[in-house]
Amino acid sequence: MTEPMDVLNSDLAYYLKRLRLPRVGERLPSVTRRAAEEDWSYDEFLTTLLQEEVFAREQITLERRVKAAHFPQRNKTLENFDFTFQTSVKKQVLLHLASMRFVELGHNVIFLGPPGTGKTHLSTALGLKACQAGYRVLFLSAVEAVTQLLEAQEQGTLRQAIKRLTKPDLLIIDEVGYIPFAREAANLFFQVVNARYRCGSMILTSNRAFSGWGEIFGGDVIVAAAMIDRLVYHAEIISLTGSSYRLRGKEGFTQPGFKIVDHPDDDSMA
């Protein structure tokens, strides 16, 4: 290799800009110095520069996918999920799902369990893995999804709203059942499930067993049954049990017999 450069000459900077290779321009001086010190071949030199550019572009693209997914939190990963606390789910099962084979096949994942048992964490973690694998992801709470559908119906744009929810490779609907839906909302939600049936993957989380979904969806057991039928076909159903992770160490404060005792002689808060 030739002697290393400290700055780019104007012609080289111009051509890199025209070719839209900003990372190469940023890294060229340092890579050139290293190549000269280690006596790289021209192939090694060029390969290293192009790897830097490709990696930078992939990171930018990944950031766009993650931002478009609208995750409630981006720090919920499989790596920091506490499998020692939540022992009702097998780590190996989640690692298998993280391969994204279920998205490739258009299958679903359903997490069922009480609040605080890790449903949102795991669904977010799988969504992030999907983004890293190059898939388009959209994360919504059930209330957000239904609100958007009701507003679209009122504005005459329901078809476009449903299309938006069927476009992602993976649609994550969180907290199904926390707030019951009226029949109109239930029917709209069913349209989304039906539209994605066999053509796109979904992850759903719910605090209610399937037997209680009739109550969730406006008391319409027929719609609930049809929805469950489509969701569980080729689905991985994971039931989470145990106490809330958010309340760990605070169990005594949540017991039915717990009372706050006043201390009238203590004037420290006066």
Structure description:
The chain is 49% helix and 10% strand. The chain has 270 residues and is of the alpha/beta class. It has 2 domains: 10-64, no CATH class; 91-249, P-loop containing nucleotide triphosphate hydrolases (Rossmann fold), CATH 3.40.50. Strand 3 (170-176), helix 9 and strand 4 (201-206) form a beta-alpha-beta unit. Helix 3 (42-69) runs antiparallel to helix 6 and helix 8 (158-166) crosses helix 9. The longest helix has 28 residues, at 42-69.
Task: Assign the structural class, choosing from mainly alpha, mainly beta, alpha/beta, alpha+beta, or little secondary structure.
Answer: alpha/beta
* Beta-strand content bin: 5-15%
* CATH level-two architecture of the largest domain: 3-Layer(aba) Sandwich
- Count of spatially separate domains: 2
Task: Name the helicity range.
Answer: 40-55%
Strand order of the largest sheet: 2-3-4-1-5
The averaged pLDDT comes out at 89
Secondary-structure element order, as H and E? HHHHHEHEHHEHEHHE
CATH superfamily membership of the largest domain: P-loop containing nucleotide triphosphate hydrolases
> Residue ranges: pLDDT <50 for 5 or more in a row?
258-270
In the CATH hierarchy, the third-tier topology of the largest domain is known as Rossmann fold
- Report the count of strand segments: 5
Major sheet description: 5 strands, parallel
Radius of gyration: 26 Å
Global shape: elongated
Supply the CATH class of the largest domain.
Alpha Beta
Distance between the termini: 77 Å
The DSSP helix count reads 11
